[in-house]
Amino acid sequence: MEHYLDNSATTRVCPEAAAAALRAMTEVYGNPSSTYTKGREAKKLLDASRRQVSDALGCQPGELVFTSCGSESDNWALLSGAEAMSRRGKHIITSAVEHDAVRKSAEELERRGYEVTYLRPDATGAVDPEAVRSALRPDTILVSLMLVNNETGAVTDIAAVSRVLKEAGSGALLHTDAVQAFCKLDFSPRSLGADLISVSGHKIHAPKGVGALYIRKGLRLKPYILGGAQEDGRRAGTEAVPQIAAFGEAAQLAKARLKENAARMAALKARTLDGLRASIPELRWIDTAAPHILSVSLPGWRSEVLMNFLEAREIYVSRSSACKKGARSHVLEAIGMDPRAIDGALRIGFCRYNTQDDVDALCAALRDARDTLAHR
């Protein structure tokens, strides 16, 4: 029996989202930019799906632009956001624990002549808003900090960061990568005070290949992809209506059950930690607020070996972000975890489909792995 516990890497597509995508591919398959009947049908579906996602995020439909993924949204927010503000300065604030989509965008901006300050996180991976205050300068034009860290589950208080910017009289744009937070934590652009928010479909049971960028009303960003006038002239390319329709269904379902799902995942996270601590005394873990991400470590055992042991029992977790493809976690290094613990780290990601059986299978398998490997 399969036990999939790597939902921070991706989620299985829910039946409702799959049905929406199939309908769009086989029935409502027109180009939404076409003016005849099939095109108008597709445009109607596109608009309805945009309302579903914008309602889930808590913004106006016109403030939401569909993209191909969270990484594109992050790239667009940083590269075009910095360019839009470049007349005011060239200083950017981010952190040492951001997703590579933000980190590499920041590095690209450095190559273009911008100066980037990389804030150090606390021991969980969260960034103290007061660190932002200390790093602010008159020429700071952009702050980008993720809401939920994708490896540890640490939650950064983006609303407090927004207050810091306002109290300092800073005109800097505030961007947050909310890919791991969307429909897992209860927030909105207004509650966060953010100008730009990145979200993704495949973390909430929609297909891969669709994301969105919230752009505060009145903020004009240069298009990241050039060509046609789709998405109100903000992103060229024929809209991926099947993926967008699925994203809409998934977002609507996840938002409607957010509190219920969050409580369920938090309970599974607590059960996992209790089970592992009881049987593995040397276990290390990171205590974070996100209900769906748990980072643990078995120092002295390598993550790859543990994952192979688990995979043989059809139990799936990861060692860090799937985007790292086996490279050592820059997040765990940045929070000061010792190398032995990093090498034995596992990330467990929960979703609404997980059960106590999944947790119990994982705990039993890790206990067996520890005992088996210890006698080799």
What are the defining features of this structure?
376 residues; alpha/beta; Aspartate Aminotransferase, domain 1; Aspartate Aminotransferase, domain 2; 2 domains; 7-stranded mixed β-sheet; 3-stranded antiparallel β-sheet; 14 helices; 14% strand; globular
What does this molecule look like?
Helix 1 runs antiparallel to helix 9 (241-256), helix 3 (70-85) runs parallel beside helix 4 (100-111) and helix 10 (258-279) packs parallel to helix 14. This protein has two domains: 3-12 and 258-374, Aspartate Aminotransferase, domain 1, CATH 3.90.1150; 15-256, Aspartate Aminotransferase, domain 2, CATH 3.40.640. Helix content is 43%, strand content 14%. The mean pLDDT is 96. The relative contact order is 0.17. It is of the alpha/beta class and 376 residues long. The longest helix has 22 residues, at 258-279. It has helices spanning 15-26, 37-57, 70-85, 100-111, 129-135, 158-167, 189-192, 230-233, 241-256, 258-279, 303-311, 330-334, 339-343, 356-374; strands spanning 3-4, 64-67, 91-95, 115-119, 140-144, 173-177, 196-200, 211-215, 284-286, 293-297, 315-316, 345-349. It contains 14 helices and twelve strands.
Q: What would a concise description of this structure say?
A:
By secondary structure, the chain is of the alpha/beta class. The chain contains 14 helices and twelve strands.
